[in-house]
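thought: fold this chain, then report.
action: predict
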Amino acid sequence: MKKYKIFISGVQKELKAERRAIKEYVLGNVLLKEHFDVFLFEDNPAKGKSSEKSYLEEVRKCDIYIGVLGNQYDGSGKGAISPTETEFREAQKRHKVVLIYIKGENGAKDKARDPGVQNLITELKDPKAGYSYRRFNDTINLTNLVFDSLVLFLREKGLVGRDTFDQRVCERAKFTDIDGKKVEWFLRVAREKRNFPLEFTAPVKDVFTHLNLLHDGKLTNAAVLLFGKDPHKFFLQAEVKCVQFPSTEVEKPFSSYHIYDGNLFDQVDKAVAFALDAIRLPVIQQEHTAQVRRPYEIPVFAIQEAIVNAVAHRDYDASSGVQVMLFLDRVEVWNSGSLPSRLKLADLKKPHASFPNNPLIAGTFYYANYIQRVGSGTMEMVKQCKAHGLPEPDFVLIRNVEFRTILFRDVFTKDVLGKLDLNDRQMKAVQYVKEHGNITNRGYRKELGLPKRTALRDLNDLCTKGILDKVGVTGRSARYVLSSQTRHKRAKHATNMPDVLKAP
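observation:
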């Protein structure tokens, strides 16, 4: 049986322990050692030839390039390219499978790294580059991530996991682990929404048989994930992490942070509620009318569909769960896994067939009215976001390892506003509106200590530039809100849209 060769790269002095840990883990794992050999330069020093020539030959021979990045670049002199980058470029040139692991989970600390490392990270973060990169804190975390990536590689080669995760038997689970009340709930919803044929009183085994959730009379992983009393007991990776950040970047402290486990229906419901609560717009009082609520910045359907898709289609063999990340300007939903080989990213914005990664989970979600079987959900997301005055969602795939859905809250980031010739006062006004929903002339004057004429001039200019809309005509009832009319237009023009909105 052919063994695939792994080349491990990284600054030897700084990352000695990490390099060693990867090799020892791969060769010590029962599954991985059957399929992989590992080249580590310090175990095979150059003999009779330059070290550079030797390690580049090994890169050419490898199937998978693993690069570990720390703080040090380790160039031999000013302007010199480090051995790590030289190896990386050779792997690029030879179209090797490239897996990158960055030490340190906090991306805000990247600026403390050597400039050469910073440049590499910037390149890797560009979704158009298509590279897989992960962040780690310690060697245990690192080796777990390496395991996930290598198992995915083997799955892509058809060497392991020919049955989908949800079809496999959950050996430790018993029917006493199933929540009968959740099954009853499902029957009520499925009969009402999808004309499910079984009666409310149908035994659990009959329901599961109809849904193909049993294999030789045993519970499948899908059965436990969907209807288990405590699925987390069997699958630690089955969870959704929800994080709200106070800015447009990943940084601490978090505004809010929750981890939801339980059955998959509960995970979806709680994650959706978390996201909707964060993007709820305040009540706006209009002149001569009752209160009018603009409930959410992003259509509810788009949020629901993004989270449901992530939970239903994720790779449950991977240790990473689903992440819902809320920023001031966007919502990102991440899940491990990839698109089916028959689909491309562009297909998600036009009519397409449905090829679920977890067909049993997806099928049950369909009966519960959580998912669209015909593959129209992403199209509807695009349609509703555009109708809401927002940019189209971005769908990003990172080398068949991670899928991301990016829903934009608005495009009026600091970078965009900086190109619109706004003064500091106006920049603060826009930020205030983002945080509070609206601002009045009086409130603007009070906030910045401005005369009435200056405040009016600033606010009128923001309306002229299509950043704010005036609600109400005159008096204290008049308020200024973010313009929903121009968000989508601005987002469609690259000159007015910063790259950060297109990147993860």
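thought: worth noting. Residues 485-504 have pLDDT under 50 and may be disordered.
final: tokens above.
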